């Protein structure tokens, strides 16, 4: 049980059938500009009013995810840093997996000269190089602390939970991902995260393993867990769910995992998702 969290609210006492939606943000609830529409907010309010709980599972750090966590009314802790940390909206950390310093150095060395931007995620602080202008522009726009002080792969950054490479051209990401997987030899998780991002995390860390930890923490036995995502970093999340849902524009491997698909945010995907979730019956998905 998570200490200090009240699970006796009206939605949780509404009946014996407990339902949870775990949702990605970028490309799933947020459009290509990183915005959430009022239609999406209202759709998720309908879901919560019907008794559903919501948790966010995102590659973002808390600082950039928090406005969206609040907008969807997610009361449960969120899976952030692509699964490396579980944090509630007050900033309390319930679980985290830190990267080994030698691994961070090796990963940075491998990607340093690949012609991509570099991000190392510390404790709500993003380290980047002075020349990584896209990274700097983004984190300035969302008001998240960053430090353009990354002078070389051997820099001592303190605690690091995740390293990212951003291919702004979106043409080299898969090749860089395959290179990292080959070089690291199963000592780290390497996944494509959409929009040209390649994520590197501690081995065994992903959104799916974090969801398992979250479900073990909460004092609620959910009858059904639905997960929705749009990219390869959502694969393990969907595998962990009772009902996996993919955005219709997702890669083929993710679509193959999904029980059904919904449109992208720009095409009203949240309304389609919620309309279908509100029809879920226990017998259909749990007993049948």
TrEMBL record:
Entries under InterPro entries matching the protein: HAD-like_sf, HAD-SF_hydro_IIB, HAD_sf
SUPFAM superfamilies listed in its UniProt record: HAD-like (SSF56784)
GO cellular component, one term: cytosol
Domain of life: Bacteria
Alphabetical UniProt keywords: Hydrolase
A molecular function (GO) term: magnesium ion binding
NCBIfam families (alphabetical): HAD-SF-IIB
PANTHER family: HAD SUPERFAMILY HYDROLASE-LIKE, TYPE 3, PHOSPHOSERINE PHOSPHATASE
Name by which UniProt lists this protein: HAD-superfamily hydrolase, subfamily IIB
